[in-house]
């Protein structure tokens, strides 16, 4: 078993335990945190529909998208700060206040009446809270596991898929009998209870570093590693187009009379399919290599949009929508699950994982902030089928570009791994 060193960090002989009660309780906490953060944001199609049809019906699709994407922006952009805060003070000291902020944001949203009130409550307050909920479980789960890191982080990431299934159904069934405001208050109460459990379960194998870790907040050293930089550039383009189906597939479905009843369930199918997508590729990544799995997954994200979603613009049908939602949900979930183990493979020291994930999420933040509003502008400026054709093309092409950069990074990483194995094999032969 591993041993911990001085309070500033692990001893030189430390190796992740790869299991045990403390580790699996932390996985449970991470799952709940993803359920309440990314999982809730995956229900954005419900909010877009409510805002466009009722509360903010005088605002454009692009303006509404800024509210939804600003949550993603803060969740990712503050990941750098939150990751280092976990290293400095431990996961509980980040998770507890962040949970309070997120619940407060939902309560404030229940009283909002204007665009800027909604933006501040949901986009800013809830977004800040979600950032602190999203990050700790990812960081400490990666520190608890080595050999089974992909599986463990896949289970954590699966929380967002489960949340993406539960929250749309919950919100849809609560909105009509209870109204928007009361539905949000019930949601806040449920989230408060779940996060109390997560805060009790989460822990870290390392003692807090204290102020020694503060330099990581503004460090750009990570981007000097070429493989890490290429991976981040690729992820930027992937995130630019990734959330298009989650927001606009329900809209497209609702505007087709014979398929309008499927609108809410298109979100559920997307997120439901992402559940095995978060777990199966992560397990395969542990066996066959993280980059060997993420490269085909990212290409499939682009291909599925271009080959399966575009035909639905001109020939909408039930089977096609369900098949596309299943395929894209699975591969998008695979990307979101395997990307963190890939970042761990790019770390020279596992204690850098919080800062490396944080830096990566800063890049994802800018892409997430601008991707949907760009698609919203395309939607607002064009007419008829061209509206969906334009935003779908943007989504598919950007993810295809991202797949190229991720592949470039993967080829370099696999080359480094192969070279290390040859060197180790040569050393063993000399010793014999």
From TrEMBL:
| Compartments, as annotated in UniProt | Membrane
Q: Name one GO molecular function term.
A: transmembrane transporter activity
Q: Gene Ontology terms, cellular component aspect?
A: membrane
User: Which keywords are on file for this protein?
Assistant: Membrane, Transmembrane, Transmembrane helix
Annotated Major facilitator superfamily (MFS) profile domain residues:
23-432
Name the residues that span the membrane.
21-44, 64-86, 118-140, 152-171, 183-206, 227-243, 263-284, 291-312, 318-338, 359-379, 391-411
Q: How does it sit in the membrane?
A: Multi-pass membrane protein
Return the similarity comment.
Belongs to the major facilitator superfamily. Monocarboxylate porter (TC 2.A.1.13) family.
State the PANTHER family in the record.
EG:103B4.3 PROTEIN-RELATED, MONOCARBOXYLATE TRANSPORTER
Report the protein name in the record. Answer: MFS transporter
């Amino acid at each position: 078993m591993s041993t911990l060193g001085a309070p500033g960090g692990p001893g030189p002989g430390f190796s992740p335990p790869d299991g045990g009660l403390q580790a699996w309780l932390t996985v449970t906490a991470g799952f709940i945190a993803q359920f309440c953060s990314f999982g809730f944001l995956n229900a954005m199609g419900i909010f877009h529909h409510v805002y466009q049809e009722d509360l903010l019906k005088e605002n454009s699709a692009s303006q509404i998208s800024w509210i939804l994407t600003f949550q993603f922006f803060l969740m990712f952009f503050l990941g750098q700060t939150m990751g280092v805060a976990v290293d400095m003070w431990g996961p509980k000291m980040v998770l507890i206040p962040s949970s309070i902020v997120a619940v407060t944001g939902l309560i404030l949203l229940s009283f909002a009446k204007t665009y800027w009130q909604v933006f501040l409550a949901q986009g800013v307050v809830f977004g800040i809270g979600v950032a602190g909920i999203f990050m700790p479980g990812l960081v400490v789960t990666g520190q608890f596991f080595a050999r089974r890191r992909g599986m463990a982080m896949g289970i954590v990431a699966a929380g967002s898929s489960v949340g993406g299934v539960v929250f749309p159904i919950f919100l849809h069934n609560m909105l009509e009998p209870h109204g928007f405001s009361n539905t949000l208050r019930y949601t806040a109460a449920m989230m408060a209870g779940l996060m109390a459990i997560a805060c009790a379960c989460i822990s870290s194998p390392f003692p807090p570093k204290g102020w020694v870790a503060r330099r990581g907040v503004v460090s750009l050293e990570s981007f000097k590693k070429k493989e890490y930089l290429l991976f981040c550039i690729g992820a930027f383009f992937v995130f630019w187009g990734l959330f298009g189906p989650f927001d606009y597939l329900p809209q497209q479905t609702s505007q087709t009379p014979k398929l309008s009843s499927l609108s809410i369930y298109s979100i559920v199918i997307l997120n439901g399919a992402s559940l095995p997508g978060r777990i199966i590729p992560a397990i395969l990544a542990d066996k066959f290599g993280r980059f060997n799995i993420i490269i085909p997954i990212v290409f499939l994200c682009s291909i599925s949009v271009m080959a399966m979603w575009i035909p639905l613009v001109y020939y909408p049908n039930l089977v096609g929508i369900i098949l596309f939602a299943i395929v894209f949900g699975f591969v998008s979930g695979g990307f979101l699950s395997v990307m963190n183990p890939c970042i761990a493979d790019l770390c020279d020291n596992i204690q850098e994982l919080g800062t490396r994930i944080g830096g990566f999420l800063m890049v994802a933040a800018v892409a997430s902030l601008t991707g949907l509003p760009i698609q919203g502008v395309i939607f607002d400026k064009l007419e008829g089928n061209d509206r969906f054709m334009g935003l779908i093309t943007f989504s598919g092409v950007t993810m295809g570009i991202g797949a190229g950069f991720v592949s470039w990074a993967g080829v370099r990483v696999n080359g480094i791994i192969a070279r290390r194995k040859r060197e180790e094999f040569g050393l063993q032969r000399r010793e014999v």
